[in-house]
Amino acid sequence: TFRPIDDLEPGQRLLVRIDINAAVEDGTVQDSRRFARHAETIHELLADNHAIAVLAHQGRPGEDTFVSLEEHAEILGDHLDHPVAFVSDTCGEDALSAIDDLEPGDVLLFENVRMCDGELPEEEPETKAETDLVRTLAPEFDAYVGDAYSTAHRSHASIVGFPHVMDAYAGRVMEQEYTAITAVRDRTFDGPVTMVLGGTKAEDAIPIVEQLDDTVDRFCLGGVVGELFLRADGHTVGYDVADTSLFDHQWDDHRDDLERILEAYRDRLHLPTELAYEDDDGERAEVAVEGTTKEWPFLDVGAETAERYADVVADSAAVFIKGSLGVFEDERFADGTVTVLAAMAEADCFSVVGGGDTARAVELYDFDENDFSRITIAGGAYVRALTGDPLVGVDVLESHH
Ligand code: 3PG
């Protein structure tokens, strides 16, 4: 079990790890439910007069979404209705002087922790505890609060290093997500189980299909992931065009896996038959995948595909969605994601919405949250938990307090 934040004496100096990793478009952070959820934890901590320094990451080195957290600080402040001071480094001089000035009732957010040496790669907690990052920051605080359930599958310094050497507590998001997801994992369902699998990360999607093969009977694929599977199936789809850098490097890295999985699981994989793009007049247009020769930046699955997936959902005992089927932030390309979510909301099935962005679609398109059995802001960690794999960031909080 975790030690909850209720056990903290008031007025402590706290290092709080949250996960506000968000979609970034044209250099702008897209607000997600993660901000609102973590704001609740911080709000509670503020009520107990703690001094709060927050660590978080954004993107992965080498990706377009690997950006500063300056804008995140502003968005978090809006959700909190309390200023969040941005500190432009993580464990250097600026950070240390900001820590010196930190008073009870203050909240500060350090720069993207993945820009700091030692945060990556994944290593044992003992090794991560020896990094400069942990050695520098840990002595400055009374306790660590782990709230980043959705990053708890990563054995990074800010997730496992600090709680290895500090007094550690679980934040509200950590507690709530853990409880909700564990309850899902332990259920069995009387009928077909479907997973709608979209989003942008092939690296995440590939193990899902393999590891959930005992649990999930059919996968409905979309988003960048769907396009990569279509490319593996020989279609002229899933290439980088118009300055995107989503596809080609993933193809280079995962081509063999994509082809192997397509071969091994073809019977249970549902692929898009048409895709949507923006035509020269700025309108949504669709093209059949079969025989496509011209490459467009595709932004959604086609309407017929969405209807076909909705039928699969309607005929399921349980449906999990992870990752959206298109760029739903743009209404013209929301159809796939919204049609599937509507089918999940209407169907008489156990339904789980996962992933920070996908959960955002529920809000953006005014679904009633009560029409879903669970909504989780975790993506990779949610799937990892579903497969029954332990989460390092959870284990270390349970064992070190
Ligand atoms: C997520 O968005 O799933 C978490 O923030 C983890 O991000 P990562 O997959 O880049 O480690």
Automatic annotation (TrEMBL):
Lipid metabolism among keywords: no
GO BP: any one term: glycolytic process
Binding, (2R)-3-phosphoglycerate: 34, 114, 154
Highest rank taxon of the organism: Archaea
Subunit structure: Monomer.
UniProt similarity note: Belongs to the phosphoglycerate kinase family.
PANTHER family listed in its UniProt record: PHOSPHOGLYCERATE KINASE (PTHR11406), PHOSPHOGLYCERATE KINASE 1, CHLOROPLASTIC-RELATED (PTHR11406:SF23)
Protein name: Phosphoglycerate kinase
